[in-house]
Design a protein that fits this description.
242 residues; TIM Barrel; 8-stranded parallel β-barrel; 9 helices; 9 strands; 31% helix; globular
């Protein structure tokens, strides 16, 4: 099966990450799916942003959890990247799911609960995905093993991936024991033995963040199920001839 190409935070090399501009560009470029990140606001609205704080990618300051969604949606989330994107804003998970609902795209939603373990984040996100009838093409990923365990008790129609950035003994069996059905690994951890073991256990294996052509081709040739990249157009160009 051909590896799926996920646009990492959208086409984040060419548009401000986790904004509609980045997602729309990924769709236009032919990405198979979109990877994005979810936090909870003070009023429990799931919103798309990578960092716990809004300082880096908006004109605001402070933690997402200390702001309401109405406060966040008035911020500029594009001018930090380029004047071309002034006026881009933080969007809610619902806005994103409504946009993607009629598009043939896979979703990878990272629950950003490894530093702040938001109460009920798994259930809130799961319920929104179910509302838009997108469970069958969504994977929820997290670095938090406790979160994977909580997801295990939900409907198994949804993908659950353990995110890993460091070497982990018996990774495949450990992830499976937690309740994951996929592992998402940092590129430097990639090796053929790990890919083969994952597939032997019916576990998908995907790699992040793969931006260099040489790394893309190595990932594809090893049989990875997917890659996360800031440059999906480039990845497609190197995958399709294979």
């Amino acid at each position: 099966m051909q590896a799926k190409i996920f646009a990492h935070r959208g086409t984040s090399k060419h548009a401000p990450e986790n904004t509609m501009a980045a997602f729309s560009l990924a769709y236009q470029q032919g990405a198979d799916g979109i990877e994005t990140d979810v936090h909870l606001t003070k009023d429990h609205v799931p919103v798309l942003m990578h960092d716990e704080r809004i300082n880096r990618t908006t004109n605001g300051t402070g933690y997402i959890k200390n702001h309401t969604f109405n406060q966040l949606k008035d911020l500029d989330a594009g001018s930090w990247f380029s004047p071309e994107f002034i006026g881009s804003r933080i969007i809610s998970l619902d806005e994103f799911l409504e946009w993607i609902q009629d598009k043939p795209l896979y979703l990878n939603i990272e629950l950003k609960n490894n530093k702040i373990d938001y109460n009920h984040l798994e259930h809130i996100v799961y319920d929104r995905i179910a509302h838009y009838h997108l469970l069958h093409r969504t994977t929820l990923s997290t670095f938090n093993p406790k979160s994977v365990k909580r997801l295990k008790h939900m409907n198994r129609n949804i993908g659950v991936a353990l995110l890993i950035s460091k070497r982990y003994k018996n990774l495949v069996s450990a992830a499976k024991d937690l309740g994951a059905n996929a592992i998402h690994i940092k590129y430097r951890l990639l090796n053929q033995l790990l890919v083969d073991r994952s597939h032997q256990e019916n576990m998908a294996i995907r790699v992040y963040t793969v931006n260099k052509p040489k790394s893309m081709m190595r990932s594809f040739s090893m049989g990875c199920d997917g890659i996360f990249t800031d440059v999906p157009k480039t990845a497609i160009q190197y995958r399709d001839p294979i």
